[in-house]
Amino acid sequence: MPPLCTRVTDLTVTELVKEPSILLATSRLAQVYDFANHQYFVWARHPDTSLSEYRESQSIYWNFVEHFSRALTAVLARIGPMVTRQKTVYSNVAEEHGYGEHDRSHWATSLSYLRAIGVDERLIARECPARLFVTHESLIAYCLVQPAEIGAAALAVIEYTHIKIATMLAHNMFDRFWGDLGAQQHYRFHAEIDSEHALGLFAVSEEGWKTESQRRRIAEGMLFGAQVWWSVFEALLPRDIIPPSKQDSILPLFGPDALAHREQVVDRPYPRHLCALPVTLSYGGAESAATVVGINRFGCQLVTPLTLPLDSEVTVLIPAIDSVAASAAPLTLHGRVRSRPETHDGSGLCIEFPALPAATHEQLSTLCSALRTAS
Ligand SMILES: [Fe+2]
Q1: How much distance in Å is there from the Cα of 70 to the middle of ligand 1?
Q2: Whole-structure pTM over 0.90, yes or no?
Q3: What are phi and psi of 342, to 5 degrees?
Q4: Which CATH class for the 273-373 domain?
Q5: Is-contact 176 50, C-beta < 8 A?
Q6: I need a surface site. Which of 28, 32, 229, 307 has the fewest CB within 10 A?
Q7: What ranges do the domains of the chain cover?
Q8: From the CA of 141, how far away is ligand 1's center (Å)?
Q9: Are 297 and 340 in contact, with CB atoms under 8 Å apart?
Q10: Hey, what CATH class is 13-236 in?
């Protein structure tokens, strides 16, 4: 089985709207999107993770901090009444911008935190990679397009869960002796103020939570925020980089020899082998003659007058074939009908062999290697 990225359990809007308040819904969401179990934080807190690796992973995060304030400002802009703006999101926006003082802006404090833990200036100066800028640009666009209570719900989830994230990172840096108190200030500070920020954003959405249709839209906003926020930390993961391919196999399809290149767009590790093998097909105790026209380790296509239902169990008996010395023994292949293609030879059956024993597998590959490959 190839390695798969982990993801959170699905949580639907329908489940989320069952919660009586937006605060409880956010808490439910934080159980599903539990950042303590996010791969990035599991990695960051792992004993084998070194400070230099951690520095590198954190070095791009300031880009998100710089632009998060724009999403917040978009929510502010979408709130009509001045009084509501002042009571809810305004102080958060002002604080993000350091009340006009550069050094107090969260962007500046996040940069000074990076420098305090010793992040190399060259790492900080790197251009923001697409994996990260796609996150803040998505949030900004969402908050500009959606009504204030929906954008606010997306950002409230971020503020709420950031309390745990900031606490985790501050504790980790302290426990690992990676940063002094000054270095941790950025995260300690956030652990304290983000509950106020979350409450201000909840206040924008809580009226809408009382009506059913609005509540569903707000829940969508919350899920949007949680999912984008989750992917921010995926972007920080020090994952293995997939090396670029040596050439783009799609481009030749736009040239004069497009047809000649069609088969080379993707590699086919297990192509079908063409043949015309007379076989016996057995189904429900009855046997009939058939001809296999294509075969590989996963299954075969055969021509037969029989029309069998999908998923029916069949056995394909390939007799001993003298011309293929190593497979000079009959092969019994159990499979299931997966489709019924019409072929120029008449009706056909595509049969998958879902569980071939290892010995049969070997015999089958010997047989296939003597056949030509299908295009
Ligand atoms: Fe905040």
Answers
A1: 13
A2: no
A3: -85, 130
A4: mainly beta
A5: no
A6: 307
A7: 13-236, 273-373
A8: 19
A9: no
A10: mainly alpha
